Amino acid sequence: MATLLDIPLELILKIFSRLDAKSLIRCAMASRQIYSVVEDSPLLRFIILSYFTGFRASGDTSLMQSFPDDLLRTLERRCQAWVAPQWTKTFSLKFKDTSIPLHCTSGIFSRQHADHLEITSICTEDFAKVAERTAKLNLQSQLQIRENNHWIDPSQDLLILIGENGPVPSDETRIFHIHLRTLSNNKSHPQAIQPFLQFSVPPNQEGNDIHKIHVEIARNMLMMAFNTIRQAWSIDTPKRILVWDWITADLILDSSWPTFDDPDKILRASESIVGFLDETHIYAMSTFHYSAVHLYEIVEPTINNPSPLRYRAQLSFPSTCNDIRIIGIYHEAGPLEAQVPPYHSPNIRLVNDDDLIHVFALEYGKYPFDGTTEFYGPFYVYVHQHSLMRYFSQHEGATLHIPWRNWGPPNARLIAPPRSSIRISAHGQRALLPRVYDGLPQLDRDGITVLDFSLASVMAAQGKQIPFSTTPVSESEQISERKSGTLLPPTTIQCSKIPVYTDDVETHLPCVAIDVEIQGMETLYMIDEDGLLRLNLCMSVDGSDIRSYYVVDKYTV
Length: 557
Known about the structure:
Blueprint: H1 9-16, H2 21-31, H3 34-39, H4 42-58, H5 62-66, H6 69-82, H7 88-94, E1 103-105, E2 108-112, E3 116-123, E4 131-138, E5 145-153, E6 158-164, E7 174-182, E8 196-201, E9 211-218, E10 221-227, E11 240-245, E12 250-254, H8 264-268, E13 273-278, E14 281-285, E15 292-298, E16 309-316, E17 323-330, H9 336-339, E18 357-366, E19 374-384, H10 385-394, E20 399-400, E21 422-426, E22 429-431, E23 436-437, E24 440-441, E25 483-487, E26 491-495, E27 499-502, E28 505-508, E29 514-518, E30 523-527, E31 533-541, E32 544-552, E33 554-556
Parallel strand pairs: 16-20
Antiparallel strand pairs: 1-2, 2-3, 3-4, 5-6, 6-7, 7-8, 9-10, 10-11, 11-12, 13-14, 14-15, 15-16, 17-18, 18-19, 21-22, 21-29, 23-24, 25-30, 26-29, 26-33, 27-28, 30-31, 31-32
Helix pairs in contact: 2-4, 4-6
C-alpha cells in the first residue's frame, strides 16, 4: 500500500483541511508516518508546526493531555527543526499574540483580531517551493462581527462572518446575520443574491445568545449548528440546525422545532455532531447515542411529508465504543487508494472514475474510572455512492455494516497503535477478513459481502475439510490432537481458500494462496491426525475471553 509520500500535496492538503488540529496529529501518530511524511515535504512541516503553535495559542490543553509529554516535546522539536530559516521571522510575527486562536482551512491560516482578519495563504505552484502571502481584511465596524467566528472556503473565495443587528436586550428576540464575503478582498460575494443570511433566536432562561457554533460548507449549501444554552447536556435541549443555499438565500432546513421522537432527537440533541456528507446528505451523531452515525437526506417537502429532512440509514458500530468522533470525510475517488486501506469485494471497485467513494475517518474513545480517555483509531468507513443510493431506496432505515481498521484490545492506546492485528494479503493487495458475530460473517442487505477483520474473527479454512461455519470447533474436540504448542508472532500461514457467505451460500474468493499474518497475541496451535493446523485464538474483551478455533491446510512456523 502506498504511503502518504506517494500522494500529491494538493490531495494531502485537501485531506488535512477536513481535520482539526488534534485529529491531524492523532492520525499522523497513529499511522507512525509523521516523521517520514514531513521530512519530504516543507509544506507539511509548516502546517504541522502551525497546528502546534495554534494549540499553544488557543490554550487548548486537551491534546497535551492525550499523549506523553516527552513524545509531544520530541515531535514539536522536530517540527521546529524542519522549518526553514526564512520562516523564522514569519512565525515570530504571526504567532506573537498568543491570545488569538489560529484556524486552518486548505492551507490557509487565519486569525480574527478585534478590527481585522489576518489571513496567510500558502501557494504550491511547484511542490519544491513554498510561498507565503499574508493579508489583512479590515472588519467593518458597522457589521458588528462576533469574535472568533469566521469560516472560509478557499475553493469558492468565500468568507463567512457572523454579525448582529445591533444590541438587543436579553429578553427579546435577537437577529443574527451570516455575512457572505470574498476571501480575496472582503467584498460581498458576487455569486450570492443577498450580502448576508439572517436568522433569529428567541429568548430563553439564559438569554438570547448562541453557543458552540459549527459551520460547514458544501458547494452551494451552508450549514450552521449551535446551542442556545451554554451548558446544554440534556437530550431534551435541542441543537438548532440551519441549512441554506447561500447563493439563492433559500432556507432549506430549520430543525429547531421540539420533536424528540427517534431518530429526530439524535439530530436535534444539544451535544450531537453534525456535518455534510455531500450537498444532499447530512450525518449526525449524538453523544447520548454512541452506537451509530445517522444519515439524513435533504428533500423537497410535500403535503404528506412536510419535513425537508428524511431519515435514511445508519452506520452502526460495536457496542464497546463509548465515544465516536468523525475526524474526517474524504470525497475523492482514485487517489484515496493510496491514503486509506483498500476495501476489496467482488461487487465493488474502489477506483472508478465515474463513481465516488465516501470515506469516513473515525476514532472512538473509552473512559476509565481514573479520569483519562483512551482513543482508538483512526478507522475508515467505506460507502460506495451507487450502492449507498440503492441501499437507501431499497432498505430505508436499515443498518449499514462497516469495515474497521486496526481493531485492538481494550488496553490499546493510540500513541502505540494496536499491534495485535491479523491481516491477509492476496496477490500483494491488502484485503480484510470477515468479522464474526455469533459465528456468522456479516453481510450488508444489498447482497454485498462485507469484508472485515478483528482478533476474534480470524478465519482460514480449506474449503472441503472443515469449512468456516456457524459452529466453531469445541474445546472437547481438541483433546485428541497429537501435537500442540504456542505460535510465537510473527507467523505466516498460507490458506488455499477463504469461504465467504452471500445469501447463505458458501463461495470462495478466487485466490491461489493467501498469507495470514498473526502478530502480537497468544495463539495456541494444534496439529490433528490429518496434518491440519488448528488455531486457537484468544482475545479478552471487557474481561470476557473470546475463543475461536479455525483450521488451515498449509502453514509455516
